[in-house]
Design goal:
OB fold (Dihydrolipoamide Acetyltransferase, E2P); binds adenosine-5'-diphosphate; alpha/beta; 18% strand; globular; 693 residues; Rossmann fold; seven-stranded parallel sheet; binds magnesium ion
């Protein structure tokens, strides 16, 4: 249960005065639908309105607050002219300029003969100080509200900074005084203030330094968030570790045979991680290990070997893929190998026909199936195994942290291996996985040819198409990736369809199109045709559909590559790195090209090392977006910025370990405060599932 003290923060934002039906929608998009979401929406800038000289001394071009008397209104003579108002103090006159504004409202706000305070950017015109459309016009009594540092928030169309300031002010007033969850000594050592104080300071920046992620108030808030994250992960980890697990240690016969069947030798890196995995499987506690390896590093084979270890013990294994297409691909890789070993691998997914499904389920319950392949959905259904002992989760960065947590909570004594193809910098492994055991395949099989990556402007598209034509004529298969345009999937689709049509004009019926809006069945059909070579060029809108292994595809064109994240580009390019032929990747960029985008593309051109790319990505834009979506489990931070708060993360990790050592059930005073922290940052699953009371 959420602590009562937090109730006010988890109300809907519609309870804020001024948020109506229309602004609600926009606001939800901007920061979220709860009061607490508003608190995490930190300012991005300030406008200093404290500069308040006499008119004669005012330096034009600055944000200025001026107190003066309204002298005269000069309404426009034609509709094209502006409405002018002359004001003066005891030093000089100045002019206010309004375009297309109701004269009535100007007259009302600036009555002749009265003193008014106006604030806005000034300029000089014919030697006279001038201000167009003041940001503020107020009475002398309101000067304190105007002449100050105005907080500027990240905005969205339809919500003004004034509105946001008013709303957030209300939200801040609702924050109850929360108990201190940080260690007193650490707090002192860092020179940090309380949570409440820090939050207020963060929302009332007075200088540009106050906006920096390194400002004490922001550091404190970031640390709070990181601690909540690390504590939640540590709680889960601690509980899982306490559970007894099976000791999986087969006689090695199947694996020996498999080594003989495979047309290649395992790489040293594969052998190394297998040794680590076997040791973990053999240990008497539950295993929860992360296997990290770049695309093409050979994780699938590693997974298979570790599953065979269980099968050798007469136990069942399962592997879960993020999509049905990928599950099917696992089946295609594994089944022929399994058949040669005399063991049975089956696929169970949404499309499995009822009759076949019934058969598989009953065979599974009787233990006739050794390895089951499926999607995540598989484990939410009531699929009964005879003796499931080992699960491999091939997550390909699609499963979130919460899902992973709930997964490890399920299953009786089941050992789990999570595989990810996403190269994750060390620091981020901590944030997403805590201190989960961790194996890394840091080498790709020998003999792979590097991908020749070129970066070209979009206006060279005709040359690209001509080059593509030569390749296709020689029997090559190629991907053409169209970008996702934010917030307008419809027009993405339109753009992709257009591209598909224009390419079809050149390449005829060799071109296929897949996009996210297609039915799974149709998608599969197109993919099949691409795999079998009926289609030679595949136009795709999303990255998901190209998750399939087509070794013959050795060319990839990415349109508007500057719109993709580094990690995304790396994943995409991985798709053409699978064969042993040389392959080409053409990254086409459009303008405007930001400095960061250019740098990103250059990194792609210069290296194929996923870990290096991930590190650079982190440097370039912080960890928040590393995978470009919230699902990934990396972008779950609202306040912490991985590029800057890396060191805090490590401290938070150690802090969390220490806390649980001293107070495993969070029962001390600090423990209780930490529960509030977990709920505040919505890491409550950990508490609900694992902590009693
Ligand atoms: P990942 O899942 O890590 O992206 P895969 O397991 O799909 O990579 O392997 C990519 C390709 O490399 C597959 O065709 C696989 O058969 C092959 N492969 C795996 N291990 C080796 C190895 N040790 N030597 C040569 N080829 C390998
Ligand atoms: Mg794979």
């Amino acid at each position: 249960m959420r602590p009562e003290i937090l109730y006010p923060l988890f109300c809907g934002i519609e309870t804020i005065k001024g948020i109506g039906e229309r602004s609600h929608k926009l606001a939800v998009k901007l920061f979220g639908d709860k009061i607490v979401d508003m608190l995490w929406h930190l300012p991005s800038g300030i406008i200093d309105r404290r500069y308040a000289p006499k008119i004669i001394n005012a330096v034009p071009g600055k944000i200025t607050t001026i107190t003066a008397k309204v002298i005269e209104h000069l309404p426009p003579k034609t509709s094209k002219q502006p409405y002018k108002v002359i004001m003066a103090d005891d030093t000089a006159e100045m002019m206010l300029i309004f375009f297309k504004v109701y004269a009535d409202s100007i007259k009302k706000n600036l009555p002749v003969g009265e003193i008014r305070v106006v604030s806005g950017k000034t300029e000089s015109f014919n030697g006279m100080l001038q201000m167009s459309h003041p940001d503020f016009i107020g009475k002398l009594s309101e000067i304190d509200d105007i002449k100050k540092v105005e907080t500027v928030y990240p905005l969205t169309a339809g919500i003004s900074n004034k509105m946001l300031n008013r709303w957030i002010k209300q939200a801040l007033q609702r924050v109850p005084v929360l108990p201190e969850w940080l260690n007193a000594d650490y707090l002192k050592q860092q020179n940090w203030q309380s949570f409440n104080h820090s939050l207020l300071t963060a929302h009332n920046p007075q200088t540009y330094q106050d906006l920096e992620p390194s400002a004490p108030s922001r550091m404190r808030l970031a640390y709070d968030e990181l601690l909540a994250n690390q504590l939640a992960l540590a709680i889960v980890r601690q509980r899982v570790k306490k559970q007894a697990g099976r000791q999986i240690c087969g006689d090695g016969k199947l694996r020996q045979k498999m080594l003989q069947i495979l047309p290649f030798k395992l790489t040293l890196a594969q052998k190394k991680v297998l040794t680590e995995i076997y040791a973990d499987q053999k240990a008497p506690y539950r295993m929860l290990r992360l296997l990290q390896g770049d695309v093409g590093s050979g994780k699938t084979i590693v997974a298979l070997f570790s599953m065979l270890n269980a099968v050798e013990c007469g136990l069942q294994s399962a592997i879960m893929a993020p999509t049905e297409i990928l599950a099917k691909q696992h089946l295609e890789t594994m089944r022929p190998l399994c058949e040669k070993l005399g063991i049975r691998a089956e696929l169970l997914c949404g499309k499995t026909k009822a009759k076949q499904r019934a058969q598989i389920l009953s065979d599974l319950a009787e233990g006739k199936i050794n390895i089951l392949i499926g999607t995540h959905a598989l484990f939410q259904e009531s699929v009964c195994f005879k003796n499931l002992a080992y699960i491999v989760v091939d997550e390909q960065h699609r499963f979130g942290v919460q899902q992973r947590l709930s997964l490890s909570a399920k299953g009786d004594k089941v050992d789990i291996l999570v595989m990810t193809a996403t190269p994750i910098p060390r620091t981020l492994v901590l944030t997403a996985y805590g201190d989960m055991e961790y194996s890394k395949i840091d080498q790709v099989p020998k003999g792979r040819k590097p991908v020749d990556t070129r970066v070209v402007p979009l206006n060279k598209i005709n040359d690209v198409v001509a080059g593509l034509k030569r390749k296709l004529d020689n029997g090559t298969r190629a991907y053409w990736v169209c970008p996702l345009v934010e917030e307008s999937e419809k027009s993405d689709l339109a753009a992709a369809v257009e591209r598909y049509e224009s390419l079809s004009k050149i390449f005829g019926n060799q071109v296929g199109l897949v996009h996210g809006k297609m039915k799974e069945k149709d998608k599969d059909e197109v993919m099949e045709k691409f795999k079998s070579g009926i289609f030679k060029l595949l136009v795709a809108t999303t990255v998901i559909e190209v998750g399939v292994n087509v070794p013959e595809a050795t060319v990839m064109v990415v349109e508007h590559a500057e719109r993709f994240g580094l990690a995304q580009l790396h994943q995409l390019r991985g798709r053409i790195k699978r064969g042993f032929e040389a392959s080409n990747c053409i990254l086409m960029y459009g303008y405007p090209l930001s400095e960061t985008s250019r740098e990103r593309l250059n990194i792609m051109r210069d290296t194929e090392d996923g870990f290096l790319i991930a590190e650079k990505d982190l440097d370039l834009r912080g960890g928040g977006e590393i995978l470009g979506n919230r699902q990934s489990g990396f972008s779950e931070f609202r306040l912490a910025d991985m590029a800057i708060h890396k060191n805090l993360l490590l401290t938070a990790y150690k802090d969390a370990q220490m806390i649980l050592q001293l107070d495993p059930n969070l029962e001390t005073e600090r423990g209780k405060a930490l529960r509030v922290l977990l709920y505040l940052f919505e890491r409550d699953d950990a508490v609900k599932t694992y902590i009693s009371g």
